[in-house]
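Data card: per-record layout.
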Amino acid sequence: MNTTQIQQKSEDKKPVREGQRRTGKKDRKKKASTLDSRKLKKFSITKVFKEETSSQFKEEFCRMKQSTISVGFILFSIAVLYMEVTSSSSLGQGVKQCAFKSLNKDTNNGQIQTCDFKKFFSQSALRVTYQGDMRLIGTYRGVCRRWYITINGNECLSPAPIDAIIHANRQAINLHRPGTLDGFCNNIPAGRVTVGLSVGKCNGYPDVGNAYTCWNSVCRFIIEEVPSVQ
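The structure for this 230-residue chain is written out next.
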């Protein structure tokens, strides 16, 4: 092979190599473009997924928050209802009767009888009732005796004393009659309470007159714990 043939073969091979280089560059550019496109698509999908997930999380959080508030309100309502039922039940059970048969108390001044009671609430009131025989023998000048309720040794001040009087102005009339004292009393602390019935003179009258209580019959206290009285 001469020098001319070698040069011709070398020249024939050059265009082929240059074409291959151009084709390789195009392939690399195409692959890079395809890769960028895939990355962009993946990024878009990831972004959309995150946005949808965030939106779903917010909605779920709002639903949970509303559910929590609803459950809390329900529990609070149940607690209030339970307290009301318990309070009403306790007040309903706070009733006592002390009955005494034929006390025959010939007392003109002082305490006649007592009845102990358990008070549950400091803010509540007591309703106290005495029912039984009461009598007063008078003289020609006129006499008066006053029966009254005491609580722990003191008369009720709020809202007012619980009392009743009998007046007589004729001598030696031994008239027995049923009598009732009934009223409410506030500001009594919780715990053991001693309710009593006492008798004494009336305001503006001398300390005379023969009183008699619970003769030949049954007399009673009825004590009830009730909501505070206005």
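Known properties of this structure: Residues 203 and 220 are 26 Å apart (CA to CA). The chain has one helix and ten strands.

See the next section for split statistics.
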